[in-house]
Structure formats: C-alpha cells, structure tokens
Design brief:
Structural class: mainly alpha
Largest sheet: 2 strands, antiparallel
Distance between the termini: 128 Å
Strand order of the largest sheet: 1-2
Number of helices: 21
Helix content: 40-55%
C-alpha cells in the first residue's frame, strides 16, 4: 500500500501474517548496513570509501591527506591580502552570532532551515527564484525569528518567496565553511576532470558521467552527517526548481551560478583566486543538481562490503575485489539466497572430494611399492573395485598382470586358440619377449578352417592333431629318403 506525499515520497507498508516473523526486524533501507558501519566503525568505513575514491580519481599524497583530515586543507588564495580582509570581515559578522546563522552546522540548525525549504517547494513558480533579491527588512525579521527559535508561519502571506530564497542563500554563505567542506575541495576539482577516452586511449572532452556519479556517491558518504542531510534537502529543492524552469526561468546552470559560491567555493577567496577553476566548480554544481536523485545512494559494492562485514565474512576493500558486483546503474544486490548457499556448499564438497582422491592416489602408490605378498594382492584387488579413485595419469602405475610364457610351437598356438588366451598384438613394442616363429601356410590354413575356439569340438581338435602328426611323419620320411639318396 502506498501513499504519495507533497515531496513525492512513497511510503511502503508491509503486512506480515506469519507469526514467527513478527518479532524479527524488517529492514526497509537498502543502505542499512552502510549506515551501521558508518556510525559504529567510522575509521573502517572511511578507509573503505576512500580506497574506492582513489580508484576513480588521482589524488597526490598531500590532497589525500587533506581528504582524510590528516592535514589542514591548502586552498587557493589562502595567503593573499584580500583573503585576510575577508577573513576579518567574516569574523566581525560572527561576533554576535545566533543559534542558526553564522554557527557551525547542527541538527537544530537544519530543523530551522528546513522550514524555509518546505515553503519554497510550494512556491517554485516565482520568476527569478534565488536570483531576484527579496525585501531586506522582511529578511531581517525572518532571520531574527529563526535565530530565536520562535515558530514561524510562512504561509500567512507576510513573507514573499524571494525573501525566503534569499535568506536560504544567506544562511549557506555564513556557515564557517562551505557545505561540501574544505577537505573535499580538491576532490571535486578532480571529479570535474573525469572524461571519456577514445579508441586510442586518449582523453576526450566528453564528461564520463557514470564515473562522476560514482565518485560523488562515494564522496558524499564521508561528509559529516549534518552536511550530508542538508545537502540532500538542498539539491532536491534545486532539482525540483530546475524542472519548473519554463515558469521560473531558472535552469540547473543558472541555479549553480547562484549556489556554487555558497556550497563549494572555499571561504575567504575571490573569483581571481579561483581563476580557471570557476568554470569547473560551476559545472560541477550543475551536474549535482541534474543528477541529485542518484547521488545519495551508496554504490552496490559498498553495500555488499558493509553487509559482508557484519555477516562475519571476509570484507572486500574495493570494487575490483568483488567479482559479483556491478556498475552503479545495475540492479541492487539482494541478501544471500539459499541457492547461493547451495553453490557454496557444493564448492566445499568438490574441494573435499579432490583432497580425498589425492590421498587415495598417494595410498595406491605406497601399496604398489610394497614387496609382493598376499596382503599387497588383496589391497590391489580392493583398489580395482573403485577405479574412480585413480586419475587417468595414475592408471599407468597399475602393476601389469604376469604374462604367461608363450609357446613357440605350433601346438602351443593351437592351445592358446582353444583355451581362449588372447594374443596381444597391439603391445608388441612394449613386450621384450621375442616373437614366436611364424607358422607355415599350411598351419595358418588349418587355423582358419578351425574357426572360433568356442565352437571347436573335441573331435575336430583330435583330427587336427592327427593331421599334424601325419604331416610331421611325412616330413621326416622325406628327409630320410633325401639323406639316403645323397649317400
């Protein structure tokens, strides 16, 4: 069930009828583990985010130390005479600072300023909003009311939308440091330089929007909590204002020109100090306004790292360490499903099986090297019952069966045919036993007539032996007759 409010926010209500799950906490925020890690272990969280920022942009050692808060920011124009003048002017303004204006940003101050933002959401059609100044007297009255913490009825008609818009810019301009902080100044300059590469690997002038969005998402994660909260409210207001530019004549670029000096420019600097960086900074704020609806979501791999950290698994430290994670525009990661656990279990079983097979192969080698004995034969028979335990490479290690000594006589050849003992022809090159003498054509003819030993009867066997004996007798008689004639 959904309800759409004035700020286009959708509230989801989930009804659970399972009594066993009612006592379990239901997590609606996809960044739950990210926020938990940020509050409970800020050092771990900062290291995780910064390691991914440096993957996207090149920050030298000094700038990285400034981003981490290890060194004071070195800003342009910090040592000029003009900066000293502005610094003294701002200190005079803050001598009588109130609860809200001129004070460091707090949740109480955000609660007061949020009244101005809510009022402006209802009056976005005023032409020249944030550009046309309001009435200074009404602005001072409203400022005093906010500093004193009194209730203000902005819908009474006493104040104009231009008064409220100008006062909001004044509040941001009087903060001790810009909303995006001095520590992040150099990082924003580097993000503005992220461009696409051509086919030859050369940089082009086309901005790399995906990497810029990812870098801003990471950079906003390490902002102080009050700064991040107010920045989200402000960019959403400017995004909605730019959508009504056909009425108020204020595009995203025009709004960036109004707000960049207040939320991104370093304090106590002039336009001359920034020089060529002014264009980068203004374009950077324009980009933030246009893509504000994507910038306050943690990248998917940061969510996964935070989740793995609390589930006791090994937490990855960068996007490159996660093979399962996707680009910022891909689907959000879901909690670990039972199918995924099944795959992990199967992988574990495969590793166990591999170790078992390796141990069996080692045991087989040991048995093969044992001296001949009844025990060795028994173990080899058991191994032969489980051939799957051996790899193809280990089959060659199987001890060869003892070869029966071949008979060189013709009768031995007949016996082998009758008894079914195979004559292995393929392994001639491996056998060291010399080949038996070839039988005569007559004997081969007799073998072919005999056919298969399985169908050879005893009568045929006897007749075959008789024919052989007759042949031998005739051969001896022929030789004797030849010898006698020669004598």
């Amino acid at each position: 069930m959904g309800r759409r409010g004035g700020s286009d926010a959708i509230c989801n209500l989930v009804i659970c009828n399972d009594s066993s799950l009612r006592s379990q906490p239901i997590i609606f925020n996809p960044d739950f583990f990210v926020e938990k890690l940020r509050h409970e272990k800020p050092e771990v969280f900062t290291e995780l985010v910064v390691s991914n920022i440096t993957r996207l942009i090149d920050l030298p050692g000094a700038e990285l130390a400034q981003l981490m808060g290890e060194e004071d920011p070195k800003l342009p124009g910090a040592n000029s005479a003009a900066s000293g003048f502005f610094r003294s002017l701002m200190s005079l303004k803050r001598k009588e600072k109130g609860v809200v204006f001129g004070s460091p940003l707090t949740e109480e101050g955000i609660a007061q300023v949020s009244q101005l933002i809510e009022y402006l959401h209802k009056n976005l059609r005023a032409e020249g909003l944030f550009r046309v100044p309001g009435n200074s007297i009404r602005q001072q009255m409203l400022k005093d009311a906010l500093n004193s913490g009194t209730d203000i009825d902005l819908d009474s008609g006493e104040f104009h939308s231009n008064d409220v818009a100008t006062l909001l810019k004044m509040f941001l301009g009087e903060l001790p440091e810009p909303l995006l902080t001095h520590k992040h100044f150099h990082a924003h300059l580097k993000i503005a330089d992220l461009t696409l590469f051509d086919e030859k690997g050369n940089k082009t002038s086309t901005p790399d929007k995906e990497r810029q969005i990812e870098a801003l998402q990471l950079l906003f994660l390490i902002l102080p909590a009050p700064n991040r909260s107010l920045l989200k409210l402000l960019l959403d207001l400017l995004y909605q204002t730019a959508k009504k530019q056909d009425k108020n004549k204020m595009s995203a670029h025009n709004l960036a020109l109004m707000f960049a000096p207040h939320i991104l420019w370093p304090r106590n600097v002039t336009a001359n100090d920034l020089q060529e960086n002014i264009t980068k900074l203004n374009n950077g704020v324009t980009f933030m306004i246009k893509h504000s609806q994507k910038l306050f979501k943690a990248p998917a791999y940061i969510r996964e790292c935070a989740r793995l950290h609390y589930l006791g698994s090994r937490a990855h430290t960068s996007k490159d360490d996660l093979d399962l994670l996707t680009s910022p525009g891909s689907k959000e990661l879901q909690p670990l499903k039972p199918q995924k656990r099944g795959r992990l279990d199967s992988c574990h079983q495969e590793e166990t099986q591999q170790r078992t097979e390796a141990a069996l192969r080692e045991l087989f080698r040991h048995v093969h090297n044992m001296p001949d004995s009844a025990k060795k034969k028994k173990l080899i028979r058991q191994f032969n019952k489980h051939p799957s335990a051996l790899t193809p490479g280990s089959e060659a290690a199987t001890p060869p069966a003892p070869r029966r000594t071949r008979s060189r006589s013709f009768s031995g050849l007949i016996k082998r045919k009758v008894l079914g003992t195979p004559v292995i022809v393929e392994r001639k090159s491996r056998d060291t036993t010399p080949e038996p003498k070839r039988a005569s054509k007559e004997n081969i003819h007799l073998l072919q007539k005999c056919g298969s030993p399985a169908h050879m009867s005893q009568a045929k066997l006897k007749s075959l032996e008789g024919r052989k004996e007759d042949s031998c007798r005739r051969m001896r008689a022929h030789l004797l007759a030849k010898d006698s004639s020669s004598l």
